[in-house]
Amino acid sequence: MTAMRPWQLRSEFARRLSTMYGAEVPAYTTLVDVSHEVNEELLDKDPEQAQRLGAIDRVTAERHGAIRVGTPGELRQVGQVFAALGMHPVGFYDLREAASSAVPVVSTAFRPIDGDELARNPFRVFTSVLTPSDRRFFDADLQRRLEEFLSRRSLFPPELILLAERAERDGGLEQADAERFLDLAVRSFELSPDPVDRGWYEELERVSAVAADIGGVTTTHINHLTPRVLDIDELYARMGRRGITMIDDIQGPPRWEGPDVLLRQTSFKALSEPRRFREADGSVAEGTLRVRFGEVEARGIALTPRGRALYDGLADEVERLRRDTGRPRADVAPEVWTRRFPRSEHALARDGLAYFTFTAADRPDAAAPPPESLAELVDQGWVHAEPIVYEDFLPRSAAGIFQSNLTGDGAKDTTRQAAELDGQWMSGVLERPLHDPYDLYARQRERSLEAVRRRLGAPGA
Ligand code: OOG
Ligand code: NI
Fold first, then answer.
1. Which of 62, 127, 233, 328 is most buried (most C-beta within 10 Å)?
2. What pLDDT band is residue 461 in, cutting at 50, 70 and 90?
3. 3-226+392-430, what's its fold?
Protein backbone atom coordinates (compact mmCIF):
# COMPACT_ATOMS: atom_id res chain seq x y z
CA MET A 1 0.00 0.00 0.00
CA THR A 2 1.24 3.45 -0.84
CA ALA A 3 0.74 6.33 1.48
CA MET A 4 -0.29 9.68 0.09
CA ARG A 5 1.47 12.58 1.73
CA PRO A 6 -0.35 15.89 2.38
CA TRP A 7 1.08 17.55 -0.73
CA GLN A 8 -0.02 14.63 -2.88
CA LEU A 9 -3.49 14.82 -1.38
CA ARG A 10 -3.46 18.57 -2.04
CA SER A 11 -2.45 18.21 -5.70
CA GLU A 12 -4.97 15.48 -6.26
CA PHE A 13 -7.73 17.41 -4.48
CA ALA A 14 -7.02 20.51 -6.61
CA ARG A 15 -7.00 18.41 -9.78
CA ARG A 16 -10.30 16.70 -9.00
CA LEU A 17 -11.93 19.94 -7.92
CA SER A 18 -10.86 21.43 -11.23
CA THR A 19 -12.38 18.53 -13.18
CA MET A 20 -15.61 18.81 -11.22
CA TYR A 21 -15.81 22.59 -11.65
CA GLY A 22 -15.01 22.37 -15.34
CA ALA A 23 -17.87 19.91 -15.84
CA GLU A 24 -20.24 22.18 -13.90
CA VAL A 25 -19.05 25.56 -15.25
CA PRO A 26 -17.77 25.16 -18.84
CA ALA A 27 -16.61 28.81 -19.09
CA TYR A 28 -14.03 27.92 -16.41
CA THR A 29 -12.51 25.41 -18.82
CA THR A 30 -12.21 28.15 -21.44
CA LEU A 31 -10.41 30.32 -18.90
CA VAL A 32 -7.98 27.49 -18.11
CA ASP A 33 -7.40 26.78 -21.83
CA VAL A 34 -6.69 30.41 -22.65
CA SER A 35 -4.41 30.77 -19.61
CA HIS A 36 -2.38 27.77 -20.74
CA GLU A 37 -2.24 29.10 -24.29
CA VAL A 38 -0.87 32.45 -23.10
CA ASN A 39 1.58 30.78 -20.69
CA GLU A 40 2.91 28.43 -23.38
CA GLU A 41 3.55 31.32 -25.75
CA LEU A 42 5.47 33.28 -23.15
CA LEU A 43 7.45 30.20 -22.20
CA ASP A 44 8.41 29.67 -25.84
CA LYS A 45 9.48 33.27 -26.22
CA ASP A 46 11.58 33.58 -23.07
CA PRO A 47 11.66 30.57 -20.73
CA GLU A 48 13.79 32.26 -18.12
CA GLN A 49 11.69 35.40 -17.84
CA ALA A 50 8.46 33.39 -17.91
CA GLN A 51 9.59 31.30 -14.94
CA ARG A 52 11.07 33.99 -12.72
CA LEU A 53 8.13 33.81 -10.34
CA GLY A 54 7.57 30.06 -10.40
CA ALA A 55 8.47 27.03 -12.49
CA ILE A 56 6.03 26.42 -15.34
CA ASP A 57 4.79 23.13 -13.83
CA ARG A 58 3.80 24.93 -10.69
CA VAL A 59 2.14 27.79 -12.58
CA THR A 60 0.26 25.44 -14.93
CA ALA A 61 -1.24 23.48 -12.02
CA GLU A 62 -1.74 26.56 -9.87
CA ARG A 63 -5.29 27.37 -8.75
CA HIS A 64 -7.04 29.14 -5.96
CA GLY A 65 -10.62 28.53 -5.01
CA ALA A 66 -13.12 30.32 -2.80
CA ILE A 67 -15.69 28.96 -0.38
CA ARG A 68 -18.04 30.57 2.11
CA VAL A 69 -19.34 29.01 5.31
CA GLY A 70 -21.91 30.05 7.88
CA THR A 71 -20.70 29.31 11.39
CA PRO A 72 -17.54 29.13 13.52
CA GLY A 73 -18.07 25.37 13.80
CA GLU A 74 -18.14 25.01 10.01
CA LEU A 75 -15.02 27.13 9.70
CA ARG A 76 -13.23 24.94 12.23
CA GLN A 77 -14.12 21.86 10.17
CA VAL A 78 -12.89 23.50 6.97
CA GLY A 79 -9.61 24.16 8.79
CA GLN A 80 -9.41 20.46 9.66
CA VAL A 81 -10.05 19.32 6.10
CA PHE A 82 -7.41 21.69 4.72
CA ALA A 83 -4.91 20.72 7.43
CA ALA A 84 -4.99 17.22 5.95
CA LEU A 85 -3.88 18.81 2.66
CA GLY A 86 -1.02 20.74 4.26
CA MET A 87 -2.92 24.03 3.95
CA HIS A 88 -2.78 26.46 6.88
CA PRO A 89 -4.76 29.62 7.63
CA VAL A 90 -2.85 32.75 6.58
CA GLY A 91 -4.03 36.32 7.09
CA PHE A 92 -7.26 37.98 8.20
CA TYR A 93 -9.40 39.87 5.68
CA ASP A 94 -12.31 42.02 6.81
CA LEU A 95 -14.63 42.57 3.87
CA ARG A 96 -17.41 44.13 5.89
CA GLU A 97 -15.73 47.51 5.45
CA ALA A 98 -15.55 47.39 1.65
CA ALA A 99 -16.66 50.75 0.29
CA SER A 100 -18.27 49.34 -2.83
CA SER A 101 -20.85 47.04 -1.32
CA ALA A 102 -21.94 45.30 1.85
CA VAL A 103 -20.37 41.89 2.37
CA PRO A 104 -21.13 40.42 5.83
CA VAL A 105 -18.11 38.10 6.08
CA VAL A 106 -14.58 37.89 7.45
CA SER A 107 -12.04 35.68 5.72
CA THR A 108 -8.73 33.92 5.74
CA ALA A 109 -6.81 31.93 3.12
CA PHE A 110 -5.71 28.33 3.57
CA ARG A 111 -2.45 27.59 1.80
CA PRO A 112 0.91 25.83 2.08
CA ILE A 113 3.40 27.96 4.00
CA ASP A 114 6.81 26.41 3.29
CA GLY A 115 8.75 27.19 0.14
CA ASP A 116 9.14 23.57 -0.93
CA GLU A 117 5.47 22.83 -0.26
CA LEU A 118 4.45 25.85 -2.35
CA ALA A 119 6.72 24.65 -5.12
CA ARG A 120 5.10 21.20 -5.08
CA ASN A 121 1.59 22.60 -5.33
CA PRO A 122 0.52 26.05 -4.13
CA PHE A 123 -3.24 25.37 -4.02
CA ARG A 124 -5.00 27.89 -1.81
CA VAL A 125 -8.60 28.54 -0.84
CA PHE A 126 -9.99 31.93 0.14
CA THR A 127 -12.45 31.08 2.91
CA SER A 128 -15.10 33.38 4.30
CA VAL A 129 -17.39 33.01 7.27
CA LEU A 130 -20.71 34.81 7.69
CA THR A 131 -21.10 37.36 10.51
CA PRO A 132 -24.73 37.06 11.70
CA SER A 133 -23.96 39.02 14.90
CA ASP A 134 -23.05 42.15 12.92
CA ARG A 135 -25.99 44.49 13.58
CA ARG A 136 -25.19 46.59 10.51
CA PHE A 137 -26.52 43.68 8.45
CA PHE A 138 -28.75 41.51 10.65
CA ASP A 139 -31.22 42.47 13.38
CA ALA A 140 -31.56 40.26 16.46
CA ASP A 141 -34.52 38.36 15.07
CA LEU A 142 -32.88 37.58 11.73
CA GLN A 143 -29.64 36.63 13.49
CA ARG A 144 -31.55 34.17 15.65
CA ARG A 145 -33.37 32.57 12.70
CA LEU A 146 -30.19 32.48 10.61
CA GLU A 147 -28.15 30.83 13.35
CA GLU A 148 -30.96 28.38 13.95
CA PHE A 149 -31.08 27.47 10.25
CA LEU A 150 -27.31 27.05 10.12
CA SER A 151 -27.21 24.94 13.28
CA ARG A 152 -29.44 22.35 11.63
CA ARG A 153 -27.22 21.77 8.60
CA SER A 154 -24.02 19.80 8.36
CA LEU A 155 -21.64 20.57 5.51
CA PHE A 156 -19.12 17.79 6.03
CA PRO A 157 -19.83 14.14 6.78
CA PRO A 158 -18.27 12.92 10.06
CA GLU A 159 -16.26 10.33 8.12
CA LEU A 160 -14.52 13.11 6.17
CA ILE A 161 -13.55 14.91 9.37
CA LEU A 162 -12.24 11.69 10.93
CA LEU A 163 -10.13 10.94 7.88
CA ALA A 164 -8.84 14.53 7.87
CA GLU A 165 -7.84 14.25 11.52
CA ARG A 166 -6.04 11.02 10.80
CA ALA A 167 -4.26 12.48 7.76
CA GLU A 168 -3.06 15.43 9.81
CA ARG A 169 -1.90 13.25 12.69
CA ASP A 170 -0.14 10.64 10.53
CA GLY A 171 1.18 12.98 7.83
CA GLY A 172 -0.85 11.33 5.08
CA LEU A 173 -3.27 8.51 4.33
CA GLU A 174 -3.04 5.01 2.94
CA GLN A 175 -4.32 4.66 -0.61
CA ALA A 176 -7.84 3.41 0.14
CA ASP A 177 -8.43 6.02 2.84
CA ALA A 178 -6.97 8.72 0.61
CA GLU A 179 -9.39 7.77 -2.15
CA ARG A 180 -12.34 7.94 0.24
CA PHE A 181 -11.16 11.22 1.75
CA LEU A 182 -10.72 12.87 -1.66
CA ASP A 183 -14.08 11.66 -2.85
CA LEU A 184 -15.91 12.98 0.22
CA ALA A 185 -13.95 16.25 0.18
CA VAL A 186 -14.66 17.05 -3.48
CA ARG A 187 -18.32 16.13 -3.09
CA SER A 188 -18.69 18.54 -0.17
CA PHE A 189 -17.96 21.43 -2.57
CA GLU A 190 -20.27 20.43 -5.42
CA LEU A 191 -23.39 22.45 -6.08
CA SER A 192 -26.33 20.71 -4.43
CA PRO A 193 -29.45 19.84 -6.48
CA ASP A 194 -31.67 20.24 -3.39
CA PRO A 195 -34.49 22.77 -3.73
CA VAL A 196 -33.86 26.22 -2.26
CA ASP A 197 -36.47 27.73 0.07
CA ARG A 198 -37.43 30.78 -1.97
CA GLY A 199 -38.90 32.90 0.83
CA TRP A 200 -35.89 32.41 3.09
CA TYR A 201 -33.36 32.92 0.30
CA GLU A 202 -35.00 36.16 -0.80
CA GLU A 203 -35.27 37.48 2.74
CA LEU A 204 -31.50 37.08 3.14
CA GLU A 205 -30.86 38.45 -0.33
CA ARG A 206 -32.47 41.73 0.73
CA VAL A 207 -29.68 42.04 3.33
CA SER A 208 -26.90 40.77 1.06
CA ALA A 209 -26.64 38.34 -1.85
CA VAL A 210 -23.62 36.82 -0.09
CA ALA A 211 -25.71 36.19 3.05
CA ALA A 212 -28.25 34.35 0.89
CA ASP A 213 -25.55 32.40 -0.92
CA ILE A 214 -24.18 31.21 2.43
CA GLY A 215 -27.16 31.03 4.77
CA GLY A 216 -30.02 30.52 2.32
CA VAL A 217 -29.09 26.94 1.45
CA THR A 218 -28.21 23.79 3.36
CA THR A 219 -24.86 23.12 1.66
CA THR A 220 -21.74 24.94 0.55
CA HIS A 221 -20.06 25.03 -2.86
CA ILE A 222 -16.89 26.25 -4.45
CA ASN A 223 -17.87 29.56 -6.04
CA HIS A 224 -14.86 30.02 -8.32
CA LEU A 225 -11.58 28.39 -9.19
CA THR A 226 -8.83 30.59 -10.49
CA PRO A 227 -5.96 29.63 -12.79
CA ARG A 228 -2.75 31.65 -12.91
CA VAL A 229 -1.74 33.38 -16.11
CA LEU A 230 1.56 35.05 -16.96
CA ASP A 231 0.05 37.88 -19.03
CA ILE A 232 -3.39 38.84 -17.77
CA ASP A 233 -3.88 41.71 -20.26
CA GLU A 234 -3.37 39.31 -23.16
CA LEU A 235 -5.76 36.83 -21.55
CA TYR A 236 -8.36 39.55 -21.05
CA ALA A 237 -8.29 40.44 -24.74
CA ARG A 238 -8.50 36.80 -25.84
CA MET A 239 -11.45 36.00 -23.56
CA GLY A 240 -13.34 38.85 -25.21
CA ARG A 241 -12.60 37.36 -28.62
CA ARG A 242 -13.98 34.01 -27.38
CA GLY A 243 -17.24 35.72 -26.48
CA ILE A 244 -16.85 35.67 -22.72
CA THR A 245 -17.45 39.09 -21.17
CA MET A 246 -15.12 39.88 -18.33
CA ILE A 247 -15.79 42.58 -15.71
CA ASP A 248 -14.68 46.07 -16.76
CA ASP A 249 -11.40 46.10 -14.96
CA ILE A 250 -8.30 44.17 -14.05
CA GLN A 251 -8.01 44.68 -10.30
CA GLY A 252 -4.84 45.43 -8.42
CA PRO A 253 -1.71 47.10 -9.81
CA PRO A 254 -1.88 48.46 -13.37
CA ARG A 255 -0.02 47.22 -16.41
CA TRP A 256 3.06 49.41 -16.54
CA GLU A 257 6.75 49.49 -17.40
CA GLY A 258 8.04 48.53 -13.94
CA PRO A 259 8.07 45.28 -11.96
CA ASP A 260 4.96 43.15 -11.44
CA VAL A 261 3.98 43.24 -7.80
CA LEU A 262 1.31 41.60 -5.65
CA LEU A 263 -1.68 40.35 -7.56
CA ARG A 264 -3.73 41.31 -10.61
CA GLN A 265 -7.12 39.67 -11.04
CA THR A 266 -10.12 39.78 -13.30
CA SER A 267 -13.30 37.75 -13.53
CA PHE A 268 -16.45 37.04 -15.46
CA LYS A 269 -19.84 37.49 -13.83
CA ALA A 270 -21.66 34.55 -12.36
CA LEU A 271 -23.70 32.76 -14.98
CA SER A 272 -27.35 32.02 -14.55
CA GLU A 273 -27.78 28.33 -13.67
CA PRO A 274 -31.02 26.33 -13.33
CA ARG A 275 -32.04 25.64 -9.72
CA ARG A 276 -35.14 24.26 -8.07
CA PHE A 277 -37.06 26.34 -5.52
CA ARG A 278 -39.53 25.39 -2.84
CA GLU A 279 -42.36 27.90 -2.85
CA ALA A 280 -44.39 29.12 0.14
CA ASP A 281 -47.16 26.58 -0.62
CA GLY A 282 -44.68 23.69 -0.57
CA SER A 283 -44.59 23.17 -4.34
CA VAL A 284 -41.27 22.94 -6.20
CA ALA A 285 -40.63 25.21 -9.19
CA GLU A 286 -37.77 25.67 -11.63
CA GLY A 287 -35.79 28.89 -11.44
CA THR A 288 -32.26 30.20 -11.80
CA LEU A 289 -29.52 31.47 -9.51
CA ARG A 290 -26.22 33.17 -10.24
CA VAL A 291 -23.72 31.86 -7.74
CA ARG A 292 -20.66 30.63 -9.61
CA PHE A 293 -18.22 32.61 -11.66
CA GLY A 294 -14.73 32.55 -13.14
CA GLU A 295 -11.61 34.43 -12.22
CA VAL A 296 -8.01 34.52 -13.39
CA GLU A 297 -4.93 36.04 -11.81
CA ALA A 298 -1.35 37.07 -12.43
CA ARG A 299 1.02 37.05 -9.47
CA GLY A 300 3.89 39.40 -8.80
CA ILE A 301 6.46 40.12 -6.11
CA ALA A 302 5.45 40.18 -2.43
CA LEU A 303 5.72 43.66 -0.88
CA THR A 304 6.99 44.43 2.62
CA PRO A 305 4.73 46.45 4.95
CA ARG A 306 6.49 49.60 3.67
CA GLY A 307 5.99 48.59 0.06
CA ARG A 308 2.40 47.76 0.80
CA ALA A 309 1.78 51.14 2.41
CA LEU A 310 3.13 52.76 -0.75
CA TYR A 311 0.89 50.51 -2.86
CA ASP A 312 -2.22 51.36 -0.82
CA GLY A 313 -1.39 55.07 -1.06
CA LEU A 314 -1.10 54.82 -4.85
CA ALA A 315 -4.38 52.92 -5.07
CA ASP A 316 -6.09 55.75 -3.17
CA GLU A 317 -4.46 58.36 -5.38
CA VAL A 318 -5.54 56.56 -8.55
CA GLU A 319 -9.08 56.30 -7.22
CA ARG A 320 -9.17 60.02 -6.37
CA LEU A 321 -7.82 61.04 -9.77
CA ARG A 322 -10.19 58.75 -11.57
CA ARG A 323 -13.15 60.26 -9.73
CA ASP A 324 -11.98 63.86 -10.14
CA THR A 325 -11.05 63.65 -13.82
CA GLY A 326 -13.50 61.02 -15.04
CA ARG A 327 -10.63 59.32 -16.89
CA PRO A 328 -10.46 55.50 -16.93
CA ARG A 329 -8.34 53.75 -14.32
CA ALA A 330 -6.29 52.02 -17.01
CA ASP A 331 -5.04 55.48 -18.13
CA VAL A 332 -4.62 57.14 -14.76
CA ALA A 333 -2.92 54.28 -12.90
CA PRO A 334 0.20 53.80 -15.08
CA GLU A 335 0.87 57.57 -14.88
CA VAL A 336 0.67 57.56 -11.10
CA TRP A 337 2.83 54.44 -10.88
CA THR A 338 5.45 55.79 -13.25
CA ARG A 339 5.67 58.90 -11.09
CA ARG A 340 5.72 57.22 -7.67
CA PHE A 341 6.65 53.52 -7.76
CA PRO A 342 10.24 52.21 -8.15
CA ARG A 343 10.94 51.22 -11.74
CA SER A 344 13.20 48.25 -11.09
CA GLU A 345 13.38 45.16 -8.91
CA HIS A 346 16.78 46.35 -7.87
CA ALA A 347 15.30 49.50 -6.36
CA LEU A 348 12.58 47.49 -4.62
CA ALA A 349 15.22 45.25 -3.06
CA ARG A 350 17.56 48.12 -2.10
CA ASP A 351 14.79 50.19 -0.50
CA GLY A 352 13.25 47.28 1.41
CA LEU A 353 9.93 47.60 -0.40
CA ALA A 354 9.60 44.01 -1.60
CA TYR A 355 10.72 40.57 -0.42
CA PHE A 356 13.61 38.74 -2.02
CA THR A 357 15.74 35.75 -1.24
CA PHE A 358 19.46 36.30 -1.57
CA THR A 359 22.26 34.01 -2.69
CA ALA A 360 25.99 34.64 -2.61
CA ALA A 361 27.40 34.99 -6.13
CA ASP A 362 30.53 33.21 -7.29
CA ARG A 363 33.19 35.87 -7.45
CA PRO A 364 36.52 34.54 -8.62
CA ASP A 365 38.06 37.99 -8.10
CA ALA A 366 36.86 38.21 -4.54
CA ALA A 367 40.12 39.16 -2.92
CA ALA A 368 38.74 42.24 -1.21
CA PRO A 369 36.46 41.77 1.77
CA PRO A 370 32.75 42.06 1.02
CA PRO A 371 30.99 45.34 1.93
CA GLU A 372 28.87 45.47 5.04
CA SER A 373 25.42 46.48 3.91
CA LEU A 374 23.01 44.36 1.96
CA ALA A 375 22.42 47.25 -0.47
CA GLU A 376 26.16 47.36 -1.28
CA LEU A 377 26.40 43.60 -1.52
CA VAL A 378 23.61 43.65 -4.09
CA ASP A 379 24.90 46.76 -5.89
CA GLN A 380 28.42 45.36 -6.22
CA GLY A 381 27.26 41.96 -7.40
CA TRP A 382 28.29 39.94 -4.33
CA VAL A 383 24.77 38.79 -3.83
CA HIS A 384 21.92 37.93 -6.23
CA ALA A 385 18.37 38.84 -5.32
CA GLU A 386 15.51 36.58 -6.42
CA PRO A 387 11.97 37.92 -5.98
CA ILE A 388 9.56 36.12 -3.64
CA VAL A 389 6.17 35.66 -5.26
CA TYR A 390 3.08 37.01 -3.49
CA GLU A 391 1.06 34.02 -2.26
CA ASP A 392 -1.85 35.89 -0.64
CA PHE A 393 -4.86 38.04 -1.54
CA LEU A 394 -5.81 41.72 -1.63
CA PRO A 395 -8.87 42.83 0.35
CA ARG A 396 -9.79 45.53 -2.17
CA SER A 397 -9.69 43.07 -5.06
CA ALA A 398 -11.49 40.44 -3.01
CA ALA A 399 -14.31 42.90 -2.34
CA GLY A 400 -14.44 43.52 -6.08
CA ILE A 401 -14.48 39.79 -6.79
CA PHE A 402 -17.43 39.32 -4.43
CA GLN A 403 -19.33 41.69 -6.74
CA SER A 404 -19.11 39.03 -9.44
CA ASN A 405 -22.14 37.36 -8.03
CA LEU A 406 -23.91 40.12 -6.22
CA THR A 407 -27.07 41.09 -7.97
CA GLY A 408 -28.10 43.92 -5.68
CA ASP A 409 -26.31 46.18 -3.21
CA GLY A 410 -28.01 44.75 -0.15
CA ALA A 411 -28.73 46.88 2.89
CA LYS A 412 -26.05 47.82 5.38
CA ASP A 413 -27.01 50.19 8.18
CA THR A 414 -23.77 51.88 9.16
CA THR A 415 -25.34 53.57 12.19
CA ARG A 416 -25.57 50.22 13.97
CA GLN A 417 -23.04 48.18 15.90
CA ALA A 418 -20.33 46.20 14.08
CA ALA A 419 -19.38 42.81 15.51
CA GLU A 420 -15.77 42.96 16.68
CA LEU A 421 -14.08 40.15 14.84
CA ASP A 422 -10.35 39.99 14.22
CA GLY A 423 -7.49 37.60 13.57
CA GLN A 424 -7.45 36.52 17.18
CA TRP A 425 -11.11 35.61 17.00
CA MET A 426 -10.49 33.69 13.78
CA SER A 427 -7.57 31.79 15.31
CA GLY A 428 -9.68 30.90 18.36
CA VAL A 429 -12.46 29.58 16.13
CA LEU A 430 -10.04 27.53 14.07
CA GLU A 431 -8.18 26.30 17.16
CA ARG A 432 -5.06 26.84 15.08
CA PRO A 433 -2.49 29.60 14.79
CA LEU A 434 -3.34 32.16 12.13
CA HIS A 435 -0.15 32.92 10.22
CA ASP A 436 0.85 36.46 9.38
CA PRO A 437 1.76 36.65 5.67
CA TYR A 438 4.52 39.20 6.31
CA ASP A 439 6.13 36.90 8.89
CA LEU A 440 6.19 34.07 6.36
CA TYR A 441 7.88 36.18 3.65
CA ALA A 442 10.29 37.70 6.15
CA ARG A 443 11.28 34.28 7.42
CA GLN A 444 12.04 33.08 3.89
CA ARG A 445 14.17 36.17 3.33
CA GLU A 446 15.94 35.74 6.68
CA ARG A 447 16.82 32.10 6.02
CA SER A 448 18.44 33.03 2.72
CA LEU A 449 20.43 35.80 4.41
CA GLU A 450 21.74 33.40 7.02
CA ALA A 451 23.16 31.26 4.23
CA VAL A 452 24.72 34.36 2.61
CA ARG A 453 26.33 35.32 5.93
CA ARG A 454 27.76 31.85 6.30
CA ARG A 455 29.23 32.01 2.77
CA LEU A 456 30.59 35.55 2.91
CA GLY A 457 31.04 36.08 6.59
CA ALA A 458 29.50 39.50 6.05
CA PRO A 459 28.10 40.70 9.36
CA GLY A 460 26.00 43.55 7.97
CA ALA A 461 24.11 41.44 5.45
C1 OOG B 1 -14.11 35.29 -2.40
C2 OOG B 1 -13.60 36.51 -3.12
C3 OOG B 1 -12.10 36.72 -2.90
C4 OOG B 1 -10.11 36.68 -4.48
O5 OOG B 1 -9.51 36.12 -5.39
O6 OOG B 1 -9.79 37.82 -4.07
C7 OOG B 1 -11.24 35.97 -3.86
C8 OOG B 1 -15.54 34.97 -2.67
O9 OOG B 1 -16.14 35.48 -3.62
O10 OOG B 1 -16.07 34.14 -1.88
O11 OOG B 1 -11.43 34.84 -4.18
NI1 NI C 1 -10.61 34.50 -6.12
1. 127
2. very low
3. 2,3-Dihydroxybiphenyl 1,2-Dioxygenase; domain 1 (3.10.180)
Residue 397 in contact with ligand 1 by CB distance below 6 A: yes
Instruction: Give me the pLDDT at residue 409, please.
Output: 66
Q: What does the domain layout of the chain look like in residue ranges?
A: 3-226+392-430, 307-385+449-456
- 269, 405 Cβ separation under 8 angstroms: yes
Q: Which residue's C-alpha comes closest to atom 7 of ligand 1? A: 398
Which ligand gives the minimal distance to the CA of 101? 1
Half-sphere exposure of 366 (CA within 13 A, CB side): 17
Helix residue ranges, H only, 85-190: 115-120, 140-151, 158-170, 175-188
Distance 294 CA to ligand 2 centre (A): 8
Phi and psi angles of residue 427, each rounded to the nearest 5 degrees, phi first = -65, -40
Which band of pLDDT confidence, cut at 50, 70 and 90, is reported for residue 228? very high
pLDDT (0 to 100) of residue 290: 87
Q: Ligand nearest 294 Cα, by number?
A: 2
Decide whether any atom of ligand 1 lies within 6 Å of the 83 Cβ. Answer: no
Q: Is the CB of 106 under 6 A from ligand 1?
A: no
User: How many residues appear in the chain?
Assistant: 461
